[in-house]
Amino acid sequence: MLAIIGGTGLTRLKNLQITHRQVIRTPYGEPSGALTFGEINGHQVVFLARHGYGHTIPPHEINYRANIWALAEQKIKRVVSVCTVGGIRDDLPPGALAVPDQIIDYTYGRKHTFFEGGDKPVTHIDFTEPYCPKLRARILRAAKLSHQPIVDGGCYGATQGPRLETAAEIRRIAQDGGDMVGMTGMPEAALAREAGLSYAAVAVVSNWAAGRGDSAHQVDLAAAEGVFHEAIEHVHRVLEALVKVDGD
Ligand code: HPA
Fold it and tell me: Residue 104: which of 47, 170, 162 has the closest Cα?
């Protein structure tokens, strides 16, 4: 079964016929909300709103461990994250969708591993390719089938938030090789790998990152919200095609 973790502006899935909700308790505390089980066009899906169903949890306070643990405990194998980002690379303007293939982690102070505490063995996961290539390929195929333009690849810079970045920080991230910037990509991706889940992301560009394009002097958050609401319609179409491809 496929799980979808929805980010900002995606607190419910269009066309999801809900069958039940389940509150899961984990050794790491409470997930962002109950898991919502249901079907899209006959294909089973689980949904979780990353920021809570009322969008009340900021990126640095999300219990990423509890969220991933809850999904893994339900024997879910594949997780698709939908996240909003600021565009850095020229071909990632507001409204674009991307399937990133790399991550640079600039976050700090987040609970970022399941392997801590004296009772756990020292464990190093391979994270060379932070997103599952097979799941990425499925998302790209779903985008093609649903005629939604999507950028294949890109490096996601994960920042701490909740504030947006300075223009200098974005220049630095660009120099590091970052193509887009968001606040929730890590430690979610690493925890998914630790838990043995296939994980990939659909990034929705809601604004030019600080200092770029029309964000040269300021990021217009109201405009970003408008862009996002339009773009999310395209995400819904990709997800609908994806659950079909996933069920094949
Ligand atoms: N920076 C960080 N996270 C974001 C942005 C941004 O510009 N836009 C959407 N999420």
Answer: 170
